[in-house]
Amino acid sequence: MPARLIPPVLCLAAALTAVCRLPGGAAPVRVLLTAFVSAEGVSISAAALEISTDGKAWRPLQSGSARLIEPGWTPSSPALFRSADGTLTLTRGPLTRSYRGIIEVSAGPSPSIVNVVELEDYLRSVVPSEMPSSWPVEALKAQAVAARSYALGSGPRHRSQRADLCDATHCQVYRGTASETPATDRAVLETRGMVLMKRGRIVAAQFCADCGGISAPASGSRADALEDGTHFCEAGPYHRWSARITQPDLLKALGEERPGTVRRIRIEARDESGRITSITIEHDFGRVTLTGPEMRAKLGPAGIRSALCRFEADPDTGDILVSGLGYGHGAGLCQWGARGRALPPHGHDFRAILAHYFPEAGLATLDASGRPGSTEPLSGSQRAP
Ligand SMILES: [Zn+2]
Ligand SMILES: [Zn+2]
Fold this sequence. Notes:
This protein is an alpha+beta fold. Among the domains are: 11-119, no CATH class; 240-325, no CATH class. It has 8 helices and 23 strands.
């Protein structure tokens, strides 16, 4: 069976049981709130705020607000906070965010803050944080299924901080209730509990802004295009991009501060989709060979949006001209492609969208205990109502 993200032991006991066992969903996810870095200096407020150290006995905090920890104090046991209306607000300086579920402050010398939140509530904030809520609902539904699958299929990525996921791009962006919108709430609700499955496991579904018209090999290097060659992600703002990088800027991006010149750029290898997987840059002080992801990380700020690109020298200025397609790693759901597929005249529904980007996956719905039910093929309609 697919591994559940949260072992039952982490569902903190009877008081949390209602959160742990909502019908038609999963156990809650534990989200590390990196926005608040550590618990020091953070205040919490809510209507009828309650605190517990064991998840069983709760006592009211009459004032309705409190510091999470007192300055200089090291908590010896976790502190849990909940409220009557189910939402809690954290504040540090100018930053204020509200969260559903329970806020847990870990014990120890540098206590972190974890939001224990029901999976479907977590997604109500993730989907609009990862895709504009103004986009077609079938694209939003495909995003909701991908984000739900990623949350459960990627395995605990922050185990040492007693969390499954963090709230940043390292995992999925999650900013609490302020992000929620009616359109994305609908997309989450209409796909409630649905996850992508492959060989009996929940898929750690990736997504990227724009695949550039062909997905990365991890997704089978499939063309994201109509028969006439038009890309479904054609409308993306970085679908076709170019960048002009001066030689000093390129050296700086490589960590070389001395003035010098770039002598040669050699593409060593591309994968079957055409993405650069190895590139060597020779300059006055040596040479460096980068993988595709390293190149994107180092040269991203200089305007390199994807590894599906080529390099040329401007014979007049010596600048490096780079032109490419798409934005991001190119694997999994192409968000601009999902939008293009959902819009008229194509009108694909979310199943058809997912079927293209996850060709080997099926769809299952989580039962009340959070286990996926039977997997069905992803045969969607190409004309949504
Ligand atoms: Zn993370
Ligand atoms: Zn695409």
